[in-house]
Amino acid sequence: MTYRVVLLKCGPNIVQVIYVIRQATNMSLYEAKMLIDNTPQVIKGQLPYDVAVNIKKEIEGNKGEAIIEEDSLLEAYNIPSTNDSDEPAEYSVILVNAGKKVLEVKQFIRRLMYIADDRLEIIVNKPNQRVISYIKYYEAHCIVSDLKDLGATAIIEKSEPRNYMVIIDKPNYSRLPEIIYIVDGKVNPDGLEIRDFVECIPYTVRYNLTLSDAEEFARKLKALGCKVRVIQEH
Q1: Which of these, 43, 47, 41, lies nearest to 1 by C-alpha position?
Q2: Distances from the Cα of 170 to the Cα of 120, 189, 190, 221, angstroms
Q3: How big is the CA angle at 171 (ends 169 and 175), to the nearest 5 degrees?
Q4: 3-state SS of the chain?
Q5: Chain-wide mean pLDDT for the chain?
Q6: Which pLDDT band, with edges at 50, 70 and 90, does 110 fall under?
Q7: How are strands ordered across the β-sheet holding 153-158?
Q8: Count of other CB atoms within 10 angstroms of residue 180
Q9: What's this model's pTM, rounded to 2 decimal places?
Q10: pLDDT above 50: residue 160
């Protein structure tokens, strides 16, 4: 049995948590920043239990939140054949209908990935909900087949491209602490942090998002009075 560490929240000590993640995974600074900006996310899987515990302790020692789970079913599916090992991970599984075995379907989805309870309820109770995205076709095929065995109906679709960015052209200067919290997760930023933020304007605050995620993040910033753009990366 192997385990994975899931980062739930980065907390206020962003730099220290990024350091822990990079030490555990050899991620680039950019990759680690993307991970903490899109929690909950798996930091690393296929770990012995004691190694997973150590990573979790380091995260929590820096005021982040993390949990340990058994490795997901997805690792079991990830056995490339001779002709698809370089296949792009660009597919999604859509649950059309959970069928009658709702509890079993919920348990299956939980084994695939970390998922919040409210999101899981939406997936199994509303039709045509995305279960998982950005996986390879043969992985998606295995998941659809297993859901079918549980009496559910699921289909495979191409995932949305992740090539959109969000740019703040002009912040609402009267609400800068709230804006910085949404962008960087910093609680009660000091004067230097606020000055550095302002000097970066126009500021690209998110990269590599789907259009729907980019528009949702932009809406949060617009609600605080920011002038924001969503543009497609080339």
Answers
A1: 47
A2: 36, 18, 20, 10
A3: 170
A4: CCEEEEEEECCCCHHHHHHHHHHHHCCCHHHHHHHHHCCCEEEEEEECHHHHHHHHHHHHHCCCEEEEEECCHHHHHCCCCCCCCCCCCCEEEEEEECCCCHHHHHHHHHHHCCCCHHHHHHHHHCCCEEEEEEECHHHHHHHHHHHHHCCCEEEEEECCCCCEEEEEEECCHHHHHHHHHHHHCCCCCCHHHHHHHHHCCCEEEEEEECHHHHHHHHHHHHHCCCEEEEEECC
A5: 86
A6: confident
A7: 129-135, 91-97, 153-158
A8: 20
A9: 0.54
A10: yes
Rounded CA separation 3/75 (Å): 11
Distance between start and end Cα atoms, the chain:
42
Residue 202: asked if its preceding bond is cis (omega within 30°), the reply is yes
Contact 17, 62 (CB under 8 A): yes
**Adjacent-strand bridge partners of 67:** 6
Provide the pLDDT for residue 185: 75
**Closest of 175, 194, 174 to residue 184, by C-alpha:** 194
Listed residue (156, 69, 176, 164) closest to 114, CA to CA: 69
Check if the beta carbon of residue 207 is closer than 8 Å to that of residue 152: no
Closest alpha carbon to 25 in 8, 49, 42, 3: 42
The dihedral of CA 222, 31, 110, 143: what is its sign? Answer: positive
| Residue 203 tokens, joined | 């500021």
Answer whether 168's CB lies under 8 Å from 220's CB: no
